[in-house]
Design goal:
Aldehyde Dehydrogenase, Chain A, domain 2, seven-stranded mixed sheet, six-stranded mixed sheet
Length: 472
């Protein structure tokens, strides 16, 4: 068992009271973390505020060197951190390795985006009320940033916030998911160990509502960046006060399978999009609207594809799906399937669980009112809905209160253009699942799916402010 520690700036701190983390697959204790309270959050914020005041003159070149050094150190620890992810959250090891690789790419993209961070000049005499002057705006660090991250990508989603915030010149207080404290501690420690670091610019605390509330309500941070549930997102917006808030919240991702689509391609892609990471992804494919002429055929294909996926020990190199994060999540998924069946839905495959392992599940004969359709499942469950045409599909897809990412499988250029124009969401994917996310792209939703964008170039805008300058 390994211990995560508090980081008050560059100083590691232990406490007498700890909580243990159990491997979701075999329930073995794999790590522990100190129980923090509001006073710990307040102390971390004070350290961050002082660090920002002391570090604000550090040149961009040093901050870039800091991230580049972290990349080298992370590469050297890749296998160790991948196994830590697998042990703490039950992600299959091959996908944990992919997450570490993506994290390294995110850091590289951050460096590239930082170099390109710029303002622009303004023509002040363009209007009759203006006059000749040298005017421009520049981007400056915002100050102290509070970062709150989830369990499903416990490394890369930290990187998407932490690296842009630090390279922009801010100080940070990070509160990672309680489910993966050691992953966060190992990653944060790599930053702290670098000789190029901005002193005390990163602090790390743990906890749930009490700690999170203290971090959000405090007047010290100037930006809150949160990835998590809609419910917590609403609480943050109500309590944050006058500060920037970036929220990456829930989703209910959908796709439309047109009769012109390549069914073999669509089936393979949908199986991955629905069941990767046990469906515990904000853009996990949850709703599939299929043209009525191919609906039954597609349903058979998808059920067959899902039945071949290996479910089990996440440390096994062959495993595609590991356990859900906890017993509550598994029980909820089971109850939602049973509820749908009682209301007339049909299970084409799966629908069973063994502890926290939930079989990849394909549902048919569902209705718009069923929880597995209208609410975020966050489990390996996908529902098939037969529609007569794209008009019906797009109406049903857009009815969701969420709007993160949608997709369409079609070889009809006209429908492709309509999907791009008419889908009410933050991202559209053509001929692949809505689960596709490239770390270089802007990522974020509309409606209940949140506000603000991630992706290093776009996150830098969240963690900086415009300063306008006029010289006569």
């Amino acid at each position: 068992m390994k211990e995560a520690k508090i980081l008050f700036g560059d100083i590691e701190v232990s406490k007498t009271s700890y909580r243990e983390i159990h491997n979701p697959y075999n329930n073995q204790v794999v790590s522990k973390y100190p129980e923090c309270d509001a006073s710990d959050a307040e102390e971390a914020l004070k350290i961050a505020k002082k660090a920002f005041e002391q570090n604000r003159s550090i040149p961009m070149s040093q901050r870039i060197a800091w991230i580049e050094d972290v990349i080298l150190r992370l590469q050297a620890q890749k296998e160790e951190i991948a196994h830590t992810i697998t042990q703490e959250v039950g992600k299959p090891i091959k996908f944990s390795r992919i997450e570490v690789d993506r994290c390294i790419e995110t850091l590289r993209l951050t460096v590239a985006s930082a170099i390109e961070l710029r303002g622009e000049t303004i023509q002040t005499d363009a209007m009759p009320s203006g006059r000749k002057a040298t005017a421009f705006f520049k981007r400056v660090p915002i100050g102290v940033a509070t970062l709150i991250t989830p369990f499903n990508f416990p490394l890369n989603l930290i990187a998407h916030k932490l690296a842009p915030a630090l390279v922009a010149g801010n100080s940070v207080v990070l509160k990672p998911t309680p489910e993966a404290p050691l992953t966060a501690f190992k990653f944060a420690s790599i930053f702290i160990q670098s000789p190029h670091r901005s002193p005390n610019a990163l602090s790390l605390v743990y906890g749930d509502a009490e700690v999170g509330s203290a971090l959000v309500k405090s007047p010290i941070p100037r930006v809150i960046s949160f990835t998590g549930s809609v419910g917590v997102g609403k609480i943050i917006t109500q309590n944050a006060g006058i500060k920037k808030v970036a929220l990456e919240l829930g989703g209910n991702a959908a796709t439309y399978i047109d009769q012109s689509a390549n069914l073999e391609l669509a089936t393979q892609k949908c199986a991955v999009g629905a069941f990767a990471n046990s469906g515990q992804v904000c853009i996990s494919l949850q709703r599939i609207y299929v043209h009525e002429k191919i609906a039954e055929e597609f349903g058979r294909y998808l059920a067959d594809e899902a039945s071949f996926l290996k479910v089990g020990d996440p440390s096994d190199e062959r495993t595609f799906m590991g356990p859900l994060i906890n017993e509550e999540a598994a029980q909820r998924a089971e109850s939602w399937v049973k509820s749908a069946v009682s209301e007339g839905a049909t299970i084409l495959c799966g629908g069973t669980r063994e502890g926290r392992l939930f079989a990849p599940t394909v549902m048919a004969d569902v209705t718009d009112e069923m929880k597995i359709v209208c609410e975020e499942v966050f489990a390996p469950i996908v529902s098939l809905v037969k529609v007569k045409d794209f008009d019906e599909a797009i109406t049903k897809i857009n009815q969701s209160p969420y709007g993160l990412q949608y997709s369409i499988f079609t070889n009809d250029l006209r429908l492709t253009q309509r999907a791009i124009d008419e889908f009410e969401c933050g991202g559209v994917v053509v001929n692949d699942v809505p689960t596709v996310r490239f770390d270089i792209q802007p990522y974020g939703g509309i409606k209940l799916s949140g506000i603000g964008k991630e992706g290093p170039r776009f996150a830098l805008e969240e963690f900086t402010e415009m300063k306008s300058v006029v010289i006569f």
